[in-house]
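User: quick one
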Amino acid sequence: MFTRRTLLGAVAALATAGSVTGAFAQDEMYIPLISKGFQHQFWQAVNAGAQQAADELGVRVTFEGPDNESQVDKQMDMLAAALANKPKAIGFAALDSQAAIPLLRQAQEAGIPIIAFDSGVDSDIPVTTASTDNVAAAALAADKMAELVGGKGKVAVVAHDQTSRTGVDRRDGFVNRMKEAHPDIEIVAIEYGGGDQLKSTEITKALLTANPDLVGIFGTNEGSAIGVVNGVREMGTKGLTIIGYDSGKAQTDAIREGLMAGAITQNPVGIGYETVKAAVAAAKGESVPPSIDTGFYWYDATNIDDPEIAAVLYD
Amino acid sequence: MTASKTDSSARNGRRGATQQKLLAFASLIVLVIGFSVANSNFMQVSNLLAILQAASVNGVLAIGVTLIIITGGIDLSIGTLMTFCAVMTGVVLTWLGAPLIVGVVTAIGTGALSGLISGSLVAKMKIPPFIATLGMMLILKGLSLIVTGTRPIYFNDTPGFDQISRGSLVGWVVPAFPVPNGVLILFVIAGLVSWVLSRTVLGRYTFALGSNEEAVRLSGVNADAWKMAIYAVAGAIVGVGGLLIASRLNSAQPALGLGYELEAIAAVVIGGTSLSGGRGTILGTLIGALIMAVLTNGLRVLSVAPEWQTVVTGAIIIVAVYADQLRRRAPG
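Assistant: Done. Structure below.
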């Protein structure tokens, strides 16, 4: 009997504790953001931008995402829970757009506008998409790579995945730009490390072993780029041009040290900010543009401390 | 004589688990009431259906692994096996264009075959279950990625496939509460496996192997064969889980699955099945899976920060098992 009471007590205490968070702000506009993750610094920066917009516009924003980018079903459970709170609008970064369609349709039927962010959803349900033009951003990386290696030689790509929109766009943006504008540069390998630092490190070491004449490597997201840096460091290879994507302490350090030539940064704070702004506008029935380009920048050791760049980098 | 001894210990096990089951059920009710009071949005049909839907895959995996845990073993491969079964279903349905029923058979067959292999590693080659199934977990994860070339396989060419999990037969009868078929399947499997455990020879040996394997052997029973059979049945159930998740996502996602085994094991433990074997019930596991789903959904509806959701879920698992320990130590 004692034990049962203990457990019930614990559970009741938990529920009460929870109610404090849940009960307030009933009349504030509530907008949940369902992201692809929340642990990476990138997502924390998106969250920071979202909270900034929330403060300015006087709405309540929650931010949530699964532990890793393979957990498509967990993300759907999150979307379902978010719908239960009858939000005025939802921000959604789909891990797999096809899988999410039934729930998105449910939201549409309930009259809840969906704002896609970070990567698009292959459907006409979202009223707008706030994201980086990844193709153009990766093409800029290709131009910078060509410039830095002198317009010829063998380069490789360490990509984060081949299923998500960002993975595909960054890979294709880089590869196609090379083919069109820099025909003397040969892309010898495109490998996928799942955005995992350790895996990308191993891939990089294997690439360097297989292609000793490699002149450059492009890492397509934070984890991939850090993996490339680690791999090159562990192999002790010199004179290689590494170009990264996004920021984070390890990457900015590598750029300051000169190990990494530079990187493309998205504007994660801007993604979060624009998503919430568009969500509020859509909830009020105002018109929103069909897509919102949140911008990107090239940064290297020369401009890393410029205020414009420093504002969009995260540690 | 030995047989009757194991039989009675199995019955004791079941009685002990009944009490834990009541405790688990009470916790489930309290959780539901607590969340409903805290946020009125929790208790609405669409959200309850979302909870059930979220519990369906984990519940099916948990039922499968319950059988193995009762024998005193463990199966860490169920998460990635689920994915591999989904992938193989994708191969036969989408790539080979086979009819739906072949896909269903493939999922269950793949699961049973993999279970049989795990069972032989444990029973015949005497590899500890933890190690054998850890190996299988990695092998299956790798195979899923190899077969698919790391890309998801979609089921757009198989009409009706998504109805396995998303459709609702119940909705035809009770339009106000359209329980998804995935949930219906969970309950049907729970009923079936419960019956197998309590009414069949397989069930009796499942408990007996967990209580006293040596006694089973000495009584002249082919313990190895029964153990392999139990792993195969568990694998087949996991195959159904693979079917459910593939149907729900309308795709086989090859990178999915790692970590799902631990959630299933957590549901089993919350439901009162002992990790040391010989004791456990399917109803308990079902309640355990529902508790996990209610907790996850409720904390989200209350907008608890995701970091804290993880902490609370961990704490609940510990509290549940500790409560069980206390109850068993207490006299009577």
